[in-house]
Design brief:
Layout lengths: L1 H28 L22 H19 L3 E4 L1 H5 L14 H13 L11 E4 L7 E7 L3 H6 L5 H6 L4 E3 L9 H6 E3 L2 H11 L2 H5 L5 H4 L35 H7 L8 H5 L4 E2 L13 E11 L4 E10 L4 E6 L6 E3 L2 H4 L3 H4 L6 H11 L5 E4 L2 H8 L1 E2 L3 E3 H4 L12 H9 L12 H17 L7 H14 L15 E3 H7 L4 E6 L22 E5 L2 H11 L5 E7 H4 L13 H20 L6 E6 L8 E7 L2
Helix pairs in contact: 1-2, 18-19, 22-24
Subcellular location: Nucleus
Organism: Polypedilum vanderplanki
Protein name: Exonuclease domain-containing protein
């Protein structure tokens, strides 16, 4: 009797749990519609008798639903993701880099096999369970447009828990789709391409447009002067282009280099200036300059610039000066800086004068070389796009966070002693040492002096019998790999939806077999934004990766199908409710466990965008 009572109790409990899950799912679908009378909502009659067969079915259904919940993909922000949200004080905010979103999209599409991970700013759990990736790019909207009209984005805020500020590539109308599809290579993925194709050039040789191959800098670079692909001309005694050693914008941010982006960085680097008003594209022939600074302690309890040394790649000193700190010196730090009170007595040169002189001295494509060069540039309050950091390109520990001292690197690789003078360091000596280390690595290979990369090189040798690093693509530190190529390789169906105003060269966004003309991507071109949204809704369930693009400047029309000028902030505010509806319409058709990403793509050279991410549960 008691056994039967316990069984009946289990039956009722199981039925109640299943019913509760169903009610919760209905509530989510209807967004907990408060207009629906409570009496009309599904309720379980606990007096009903449940047969043994019904109990088995309920147990099976409960197990399936629990399994589905446990295996559902999940997205959450990490520290740097939280720092990028629009809720963060603008002076403390750290916007996401464009690569951050690209890495998320690649992971959502390829799951655990993705060569790129968005681990810096978010966690994407069980990415293999994502049903499809839907991206809606709205060009013409900025982060300012969202914050200024936040109260009108009612549906959008109901969908997305977070809105994150996003640093966009240098604005070029209707090129954002190509930018999204081309992801900068990580070192590990370079190695896999090298293993597969023999060299990066072999893997990427069909990509002829440098604008799609190399990552856009945060700095003003005159890319028009480099419109044609250049043949690699290596310098004497160099086995690969020096551009492969450059830090990427994301690396620069992680390593603490001053960079010109808004938010916390804008406040942190207030008073800084760029070394040039405009730069030339960096090449394998761009000159290298060793840079090192020495500091003194001032009354503000800070180290301030006291000496600057610049050496050309022939180890000739081309700039050497002492600098008078803005504040009174309280400690000359002589054992380290080599600076004495007597040396500084008659020094009058200011930091501002040094900045101007260095700016006039350096060519527009100069590569600065140094050990933890971020410290020197911060001391000089200068920003520069092209840097090689010997503390990054050499690594003896296998841990990127543990950096070897320049003195140790010089002794280990050059068999030279530096920094042994009891009167302190010589900034010229340190500059020359950094250049020598860089030249040594260029004479070997990309793996030389890096324990972690050497280990990977050994693995590749064991697998393939040889390793090929030959005839690399120019600026290959910033070579990109197309999302669509990865999708096609894994038999993922991709589609682009846009208006006719969006011209995309799909062949440039692919890694195809030589001679192949099939890029494997559908591109639907519609006559209006409404039709783009409609087409996206119709086809998204049939594709693994959907990239839809609209431009409110080019594509917005009124009820009479007449083009509307949306260049003013007032007009943008007026059409925000329609944009809000478009976002909701696409979201309503996203499949369960699908990931939806909305990107506000900016409108000019100085604007940041917004990124929003949500998984459909």
């Amino acid at each position: 009797m008691r056994k039967q009572e316990r069984l009946e109790k289990k039956k009722r409990k199981t039925a109640a749990l299943v019913n509760m899950i169903k009610i919760n799912e209905i509530d989510k679908i209807h967004e907990k519609n408060s207009e629906e009378p409570e009496a009309k909502k599904s309720k379980l009659n606990l007096d009903i008798q449940i047969s043994d067969d019904q109990y088995k079915l309920l147990k099976k259904e409960l197990a399936e639903r629990r399994n589905a919940l446990q295996n559902a993909p999940k997205f959450r922000l990490k520290f740097f993701g939280e720092k990028a949200t629009l809720l963060t004080n603008p002076t403390k905010r750290q916007p996401l880099m464009f690569e951050d979103i690209q890495y998320l999209l690649m992971t959502s599409l390829l799951g655990s096999s993705s060569p790129f991970k968005p681990d810096r700013w978010c966690v994407l759990e069980k990415a293999n369970r994502i049903t499809h990736t839907v991206v809606l790019v709205i060009e013409g909207l900025t982060s300012y447009n969202f914050t200024a009209n936040e109260s009108q984005f009612i549906r959008t805020k109901g969908i997305f828990e977070h809105q994150l500020e996003l640093v966009l590539p240098k604005y070029k109308k209707n090129r954002l789709v190509e930018e999204i599809s081309n992801v900068p290579l990580t070192q590990s993925h370079k190695e896999s391409l090298i293993k597969q194709y023999g060299s990066l050039e072999a893997a990427l040789k069909l990509n002829k447009d440098p604008n799609t191959m190399f990552s856009k800098s945060l700095f003003p670079i005159d890319i028009d002067t480099d419109s044609e692909e250049q043949k690699i001309e290596l310098n004497e005694n160099e086995t690969f282009p020096r551009t492969r050693l450059l830090l990427s914008p994301l690396q620069m941010m992680i390593e603490g280099y001053p960079i010109p982006i808004k938010g916390e960085y804008e406040e942190r680097y207030r008073g800084y200036r760029s070394t040039k008003s405009i730069y030339k594209p960096v090449t394998s022939k761009s000159p290298m300059f060793g840079l090192d600074c020495e500091m003194c302690r001032t009354i503000k309890s800070e180290n301030e610039l006291a000496r600057v040394s610049i050496v050309d790649e022939n180890f000739k000193s081309i700039y050497e000066t002492l600098v008078r700190p803005e504040n009174k010196i309280v400690n000359y730090l002589t054992p380290w800086s080599g600076i004495t009170k007597e040396m500084m007595e008659n020094v009058t040169k200011t930091l501002k004068e040094v900045q101007e002189e260095v700016s006039n001295l350096l060519p527009a494509d100069a590569i600065l070389v140094g050990q933890s060069l971020n410290c020197d540039l911060n001391a000089m309050k200068l920003m520069h796009p092209y840097v090689i950091d010997t503390s990054v390109i050499y690594n003896l520990s296998g841990d990127r966070n543990r950096k070897s001292k320049l003195q140790h690197l010089t002794k280990h690789f050059l068999n030279e002693e530096i920094q042994i003078d009891k009167l302190g360091h010589s900034s010229i000596e340190d500059s020359i040492a950094c250049l020598k280390l860089t030249k040594l690595k260029l004479s070997k290979d990309i793996y030389f002096g890096d324990v972690a990369l050497e280990a990977k090189k050994s693995i590749l040798k064991n697998e393939e019998g040889k390793i090929g690093i030959v005839k690399d693509i120019e600026s290959s530190s910033n070579v990109k790999t197309p999302i669509f190529s990865h999708a096609l390789k894994r038999q993922k169906k991709s589609v682009i939806v846009s208006t006719h105003n969006c011209e995309i060269n799909l062949k440039k966004s692919m890694l195809m077999s030589e001679g192949s003309e099939d890029h494997g991507i559908k591109h639907f071109k519609e006559n209006s934004i409404k039709k783009v949204v409609k087409k996206t809704k119709e086809i998204l369930l049939d594709h693994d990766f959907i990239l839809s693009h609209i431009n409110i400047f080019n594509d917005f029309v009124d009820e009479e199908n007449e083009k509307v000028d949306c260049s003013s902030e007032e007009k943008i505010a007026e059409i925000v409710p329609k944009i809000d509806k478009w976002i909701e319409k696409v979201w309503s058709n996203v499949a369960t466990n699908g990931i939806f990403v909305v990107i506000f793509g900016g409108r000019d050279l100085n604007s940041n965008g917004v990124s929003m991410v949500q998984i459909k549960s």
